Amino acid sequence: MTATHTPLHIWTGVFFCLLNQGAHGAEQSFTVQGRSMLPAIKPGQQVTISDQCLIAGENLLHQVTAIKIATRPHPLLKRIAGTPGQRVRFSSNEIIIGERKWSIPGVASSLLQRQLKHTDFIIPDNSFLALSDQPVDSLDSVDFGLIARPQIKGCLQTD
């Protein structure tokens, strides 16, 4: 099936519309305006999101994805920092996933930590930890908790 390619724009890191749901190989191009994924993705940059990574069952760890959360009308761009089975630990200002440390001010009192009620846990099946590359003034799993697999709508396509 031929992939669709429709130009879109981003407003503070979110889509104005969803990926073409139900169509395999759907792609969306848009201009980034948010700063949450700096330095990897810059405001004004043209990017494309495709659901091909989901169809192919690719490992999503460290990929930039479009995710949908209930409190937002449009998907957000976030990096998958933790996948099912990975160990996650919290300290006062960081999340440690496997051996990688993410510096996140205030994470010890975050919704994610309160939701999980542990400072050391394993990510459950079909759940993912989605983080911003710029944690200050960003909305990600620290704020809304773990995401379920169906909330991931596609992956950033690289040249």
From TrEMBL:
Signal peptide location: none
Keyword Protease annotated: yes
Keywords in alphabetical order: Hydrolase, Protease
Subcellular location: Membrane
Membrane topology, as annotated: Multi-pass membrane protein
Reactions this protein catalyses: Cleavage of hydrophobic, N-terminal signal or leader sequences from secreted and periplasmic proteins
Main location: membrane
EC number, as in UniProt: 3.4.21.89
GO molecular function: signal peptidase activity
Domain Peptidase S26 span(s) in chain numbering: 28-155
Family recorded in the similarity comment: Belongs to the peptidase S26 family.
Entry protein name: Signal peptidase I
